[in-house]
Amino acid sequence: MSCSWREIFFASSAFGNFGTEMSIQPVVRYWGFLLAKLLAGAVLLVPLLSLLNHLIAPGTPFLHVSTKWFGFDLLYTSMVGLWFLMASGILYLCIWDQRYRCRVCLRRLRMPIETGSWSLMLQLGRPRIEYICPYGHGKLNVEELQILGRENPEWTEQRDMWEELLAGKGPDSRK
Ligand SMILES: [Zn+2]
């Protein structure tokens, strides 16, 4: 059984809801953006922990919490608790923001509209919230009711919106 590196790459990118026909560049850009956000968060959080250790518990190794002070000193324990909450919040925001970004151009998805209906499920499908990219690269369907735990939103890539709108007008009218 042979598998090309391209197939492996796109199988691993299914987590980001990319279509199989996509080129590699948007996939790298999408995950690179998340990495950049996480690095920016680390740039804020690492010095903060170092400063906290320097002020209250000097001699603590880099990126460690002092076992001598943590759990025994109220101020140090509270500050480390706050730092941990902040780190969790930043991580959550990075991932939450990433879910609602266009997979092609990384702009925030806009115009959420409700589609589907429970009473007309066979005709309209299950209730979902649909977001679109303002530049028409695609749409994201987020299930309204997450029955089976957290479900991955479904990204549908579209052809260029402007190309479709002007499709009937001939190639010369677009220039
Ligand atoms: Zn876009």
Notes on the protein architecture:
With 175 residues, this protein is of the alpha+beta class. The protein folds into two domains: 5-99, no CATH class; 110-167, no CATH class. It has five helices and four strands; from the N terminus they run αααβαβββα. The protein has helices at residues 5-12, 24-56, 74-99, 121-124, 161-165; strands at residues 110-115, 128-132, 138-143, 154-157. The protein has a four-stranded antiparallel beta sheet, with no helix packed on it. Strand 2 (128-132) and strand 3 (138-143) form a beta hairpin. It is elongated. The model has no long low-confidence stretch (mean pLDDT 84). Zinc ion is lined by residues 102, 104-105, 107, 133, 135, 137.
Architecture blueprint of SSEs:
Blueprint: H1 5-12, H2 24-56, H3 74-99, E1 110-115, H4 121-124, E2 128-132, E3 138-143, E4 154-157, H5 161-165
Antiparallel strand pairs: 1-2, 2-3, 3-4
Bound molecules: zinc ion (ZN).
